[in-house]
Amino acid sequence: MSFFLDNWTLFAIAIASGGMLLWPALGGAARGGGLNPNEVVQLMNREKAQVIDVCSADEFAAGHVVGARHIPLDELESRLPQVVKNKALPVVMVCASGARSGRAVAVARKLGYDKAHSLAGGMGAWRAASLPVEKA
Asked: Global pTM?
């Protein structure tokens, strides 16, 4: 028992460092399933994830993820069931910065798309990862 009392600072440091290691995992759950660009590419390749761009028409034309379908955020609730018929497949929502795609994930989950995710950082993160972009 005296060992623990004499070395309480070491235990405090160990607990704090463990908490810092867990923080990104807990933060990822809180932000609604935001994925980094590499995770999105893996979902696209392994599970045939459908990418939905919820940007405005001008932003979509300026550049979007290769193969992404365009559904503006205000039309998402009515058009998503027509575009993505299989609710079991993953759906990745993308916008310019990641803010609108977070709201789009909430709409998609409300519609029954349990595997709806958001691209954390939006197209900025996609471009920063040097991933391919196509223009309409």
From this structure: 0.74
